[in-house]
Design goal:
Distance between the termini: 35 Å
Strand content: 25-35%
Number of strands: 8
Strand order of the largest sheet: 3-2-1-4-5-8-6-7
Shape: globular
Structural class: alpha/beta
Largest sheet: 8 strands, mixed
Radius of gyration: 17 Å
Order of helices and strands: HEHEHHEEHEHHEEE
């Protein structure tokens, strides 16, 4: 999934904007888990810093242990982890010290109250930066693939890992974030569906957000 994540972020930055992203990007990966995305972002040549945040000390310890296996990451200040929830962190008052990319990958479908959670994430994005999300639409196909097939038949993930009622449709997510002051003006949103194909892996699929997994990005309006 990481190649698609990076491709999606790049597609967000290619959209017309009044501001250019920093030469070296600063990332905040919320709900970073074991650091799968955070590590891959830290290895990119245009990355300045990646901070992974997760409230679970167990997964932070896994992420830190895995990063220690890579000499490049051991000797570099590019990657760091915080055992915190986003609600307990305070964003910088200086916009220059905020983040070019704040990522929420496979997170909000596990959140009971997504609206206040998303509001807590927004202040960490610098003007002109992007909040990027991947999640699952609440459709009959997502129920079939994630609940019946993945959990009950194939056993790919533990039974009960997903709560279908917590899934958020792309329109619901987009409408909510566009209602927030200072977000998504002048075409500052981006959506791409994605699907898993056996033998091929994850692929972007036009219109896939109407079926199941999708990416959504929204830009914080640049300062005028």
């Amino acid at each position: 999934m990481n190649p698609l994540r990076h491709d999606f972020i790049a597609s967000c930055h290619r959209l017309k904007s009044n501001t250019s992203p920093s030469k070296e990007l600063h990332y905040l990966d919320i709900g970073c888990g074991g650091g799968i995305f955070a590590e891959s972002a830290a290895r990119l040549p245009h990355t300045a810093k990646v901070i992974g945040v997760d409230p679970s000390i167990e997964v932070i310890e896994v992420a830190e242990a895995h990063a220690r296996q890579d000499p490049m990451l051991q000797q570099s200040p590019r990657l760091g982890y915080l055992n915190e929830s986003i609600e307990t962190l305070t964003p910088s008052e200086d916009p220059k010290n905020l983040y070019d990319v704040v990522s929420l990958f496979e997170v909000i479908e596990h959140v009971s109250a997504p609206a206040p959670f998303l509001r807590a994430c927004l202040p960490f994005v610098k003007p002109g930066g992007w909040l990027v999300i991947s999640t699952i639409a609440r459709t009959w196909t997502s129920w079939l693939t994630t609940k019946v097939v993945a959990e009950d038949i194939a056993g790919i993930v533990p039974r009960g890992m997903h709560d279908w009622e917590k899934y958020v449709n792309e329109k619901e997510l987009k409408d909510f974030l566009l209602q927030q002051d200072g977000w998504g003006r002048n075409g500052g949103t981006n959506t791409k569906g994605c699907m898993y194909f056996p033998g091929l892996g994850w692929r972007m699929v036009s219109g896939g957000e109407q079926w199941g997994n999708y990416f959504f990005g929204i830009r914080r309006d640049p300062e005028s």
